[in-house]
Design brief:
With 157 residues, the protein is mostly beta strands. The protein has no helices and ten strands.
Length: 157
Amino acid sequence: MRELGGVPVRELVFALEFRGTAWALPGSTTKRRAKTTAWSQALSSVLGPEGVAARVERLTGEHAVLESEVERRGDGTFVEAGTIAYGSAGTIAFETVGQGTVGPSPVAGWQRGAVIWAVTGGEGRFAGARGVITSNFTVSAGGEVIDNHFARLYLPA
């Protein structure tokens, strides 16, 4: 148990890999929407003399759904706001801290990027949530998204 401003909070730290799609909003050259899903999963990283062996294993359980709106700027930056529903447990709301960045990837036909989101609130078991989520993602020319999150949330105790 920790305290934030004298109020007891529970710290929740986890990682998830989301997959889904992003598309341009009709009539806009700068706005996009995204919808991605992360199934219950175990992420592992094993370090050894050959490097890092990484794996994402799908597990039995509920899934999380991210829905957001992105506004891209001509300089490769963007801002984003949205929600993530963590199964039947509840939902958080988020918005970009500063700006995210997106640009060319070494993989042909893909872009890579990153953004930090501030968690601005929540519902259900996430009521009163605050915290930060980092997103490191790739997106294909066709709109396929692979998005890895690392979350540090603070929930009222």
